[in-house]
Amino acid sequence: MIWMSWAAMLISLAPVTTAEQPVDPYPQNDANAGAQPFDGQAMWRAFHEADGVSRIVDEAIDLSQSDPHISDIFRNRDLVRLRRTLKEQFCYILNGGCHYSGRTMQAAHKDMGIQTADMGALVEHLQAAMRHEHISYRAQNRLLAKLAPMKRTVVKQ
């Protein structure tokens, strides 16, 4: 019994990973974001700029991780990197002045086995996060329209 409480204490003291895992080098280019940015600053402002994008990405990932239908997609993944690159991607597409340093959509999702239903659940979580951030439906739909063509390279048939 003492051993179990000692082990539990050690586990609770284990550090949470807050650093990105190293990756093999790859060509970095804004084109890797998978979509061209919107013109002007209206969409960036509609998403409440960096703070809003950060809250939306964090909530969408949290909802996806806790969804038993798709949580396996996120298991053993570098979630620190995922959060950073998604925030960069959205900032770039929303014309917030960021550059996207992530991989291409095809390379980033290679061998993940994402299916159409998985993509649907991910979009639902993103929509929920945008609603919680009080993003107008028009702005939500405009962003989703930019992201939708990426389904062809992310979903495996």
Automatic annotation (TrEMBL):
Leader sequence residues: 1-19
Protein name (record): Group 1 truncated hemoglobin
Domain of life of the native organism: Bacteria
Species this chain originates from: Novosphingobium aquiterrae
Lineage: Bacteria, Pseudomonadati, Pseudomonadota, Alphaproteobacteria, Sphingomonadales
Heme is among the record's keywords: yes
Keywords assigned by UniProt, alphabetized: Heme, Iron, Metal-binding, Signal, Transport
Matching InterPro entries: Globin-like_sf, Globin/Proto, Hemoglobin_trunc
